[in-house]
Amino acid sequence: MNIEKVYILEDRGILYINGEDTKEFLQNLISNDINKVNETNSCFSSLLSPQGKYLYDFLILKHKNGYFIDCEKKQVEDLLKQLNIYKIRSKVEILNLSNEFVIVAFSYKKFMKFEKVKDTLGFTFKYREDPIFLDPRNKMLGGRLVINLEKLYLSLKKLELQSSEVSEYYKLSHQLGIPQQNMKKLKNKLFGIECNFDELNGIDFKKGCYVGQENTARIKLKNKLTKRLLPINLVSGKLKEDALIYGKNNKEIGKVLIDNEYPFAIIKFLDNNFNNSNEFKSDSAILKITKPEWIKD
After folding, report:
1. Is the dihedral of CA 128, 129, 134, 135 positive or negative?
2. Which among 121, 141, 233, 245 could disulfide-bond with 135, CB atoms 3.0 to 4.6 Å apart, if both were Cys?
């Protein structure tokens, strides 16, 4: 990302959760530890099914007496409904502020130009009372600013940032192997840990119980992780959602899950028929699969 460019992520939504029981409420639900989130640190997390399957993912940052939840706007209403199901008698208020606040992203180099920042994933500070944080998933995704729409353009001018095509940001995210769009296509189709949330700092294995914790911990501790969500690079043809992917000798090695502009597949990454330097076949498509360098195994 160019240091002068900023990407207005209009496809992101914002929930605000506050109330007397907010911290306990979130701690019992999310895959990360809410105690990590404070005025100087934000985190990445997810909400899983009781079986540990992916439902939603989001970024969490402290705001006043509660928390901002930065999530894909297409899923914000469904996430709100899901959280309200769990709320029961908890003293918690959940508001959809997506029409009032906007998320903007800018380069890691620009983030490091601010005074007194730390080169630490999730590091958070205030700029003119608005939170800025280094993306807790991967620092190459850069910094994020959560700001009221009314203040947006004046602040961008003061920060000497120029609005650029948002496709540049999502192309980078896809190249890094981090999905952010059309995440609903993953819902209940794979385990959260298969989404690489461990490597993206979205799972805390020491925090205790949360929804989906049992299977997540079992897969991790018993070394049963054999499939991962990996980015697709289309060579030719057209991808089809849920189409199987085949390697040498017509052996199945995965399935297309996100078939849009920034496609992803669930891949048997330990299979002898998988080699990320090879080309693979899927329905009417020829494709390659990239294994991000931040995945070590």
Report:
1. negative
2. 141
Shared-domain flag, residues 32 and 167: yes
Secondary structure class of 92 (helix, strand, coil): coil
Same domain (yes/no): 148, 79: yes
Residue 116: both structure tokens together: 């007194």
User: Which residues, given as ranges, of the chain have pLDDT below 70?
Assistant: none
Q: Examine the domain organization and report whether 47 and 172 are in the same domain.
A: yes
Cβ pair 130, 155 in contact under 8 A: yes
Q: pLDDT for 251-280, tens place per residue?
A: 999 999 999 999 999 999 999 889 888 999
- Residues with Cβ < 8 Å from 4, sequence gap 6 or more? 110, 160, 161, 162
- Distance in angstroms (rounded) separating the CA atoms of residues 77 and 13: 9
* Integer angstrom CA distances of residue 19 from 14, 111, 122: 17, 31, 24
| Residue whose entry in the numeric block shows the structure tokens 């020829």 | 286
Q: What is the pLDDT of residue 55?
A: 98
Say what the pLDDT of residue 1 is.
86
Go through the chain and tell me how many residues it has.
Answer: 297
Report residue 88 as tokens: 């029961």
Identify whether the C-beta of residue 241 lies closer than 8 Å to the C-beta of residue 227: no
Taking the C-alpha atoms of residue 42 and residue 121, their distance in angstroms, rounded to an integer, is 8
Alpha-carbon torsion (166, 171, 172, 178), positive or negative: positive
CATH number of the domain at 23, please.
Answer: 3.30.1360.120
